[in-house]
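User:
Note these tokens:
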Amino acid sequence: MAKLVGVDKWMFGATMLLILAGLLMVFSASAVVAEARYNSEFAFVGKQAIWAVLGVLMLLVLMRVDYNLYKSPRFIYSALCITTLLLVLVYFFPGSHNTHRWIRFGGFFTFQPSEISKIVTVLFLAWFLHTRLNEMNDWWHTLVRAAIVPLVFVVLVVRQPDLGTALVLAGVTAMMLFLAGMQWRYLVGGLLAGGACVAGLLYFVPWRWIRILAFLNPAADPQGAGFHINQSLIAVGSGGLTGVGYMDGIQKLFFLPEAHTDFIFANIAEELGFVGAIVIVALFVILGVRGLRTAFRSQDSFARLAAFGITTGILLQAFFNISVVLALVPTKGIPLPLISSGGTSLFCTLASIGILLNITRTVD
């Protein structure tokens, strides 16, 4: 067994700074809206702070729990069953904004099972593949069996509907299979098949196709389908080099939709400018570099795959979110990890980083 060392301080520090930045920016982006809706400017940031505390506590616990626990078939099968049950259970709860993504307990607690599916997918693939690294050419007994669980999760998440999270799950699955030794021809074949499915989900679902058209030409309908993109770009462009000042942004004042959730990076760019936006990106880069360093330095194949999956999952979400804000990809409902308002996302991301930090203890 590898000698235990201290946790990665760079990774831990970057995570804590991102949480702090997230709380500050959630308050800035939501205070006026919260006051108008709930007569309290702390309505959104208060809930986010509670989830942040719970998430940090979970991180501190999990970074001390030996990651070998997750190699147990009992743990993996239990996690798969519970996650699948929760992903199905969401359809029995009242929808919100024409979606079924949350399990609700009264009016005070909501939980989004698709966030759990990200962690469980990574741990399942790491467990399933780490003893089959020499069998990656066996497409039926290894590749197909490995892909079944992520595929079930993807289908259930797409049905919610939540195409953005489904794409993250599919992307992480593909990258973990490739890291484990899957041949290029299978990767290319999977990408072509997946691309065809995504194209169908975009073209044959009217509201998604409208988003694609708005992405290609936002000026065609600036008050309708192109509203999100235009307001986001106005916010980003208004920030300049150093921003208009913390709490002084204009676009969050009922112009930019979801300013404290999916489009919070636009508010960061407006208030803190290019400098502030780059600092946030740099913190994600530090988190990513240290996570990948952990993955590639680990001597344990399970730890290597798990660390890689957790890290790439966070980076892929951040990439998608920032790309949406900058109008580089069509609008998707993907939060910015550790920053956007959303308790389940914050808690589950911190839990996954706790597992990652535990793995860093075995890497010099």
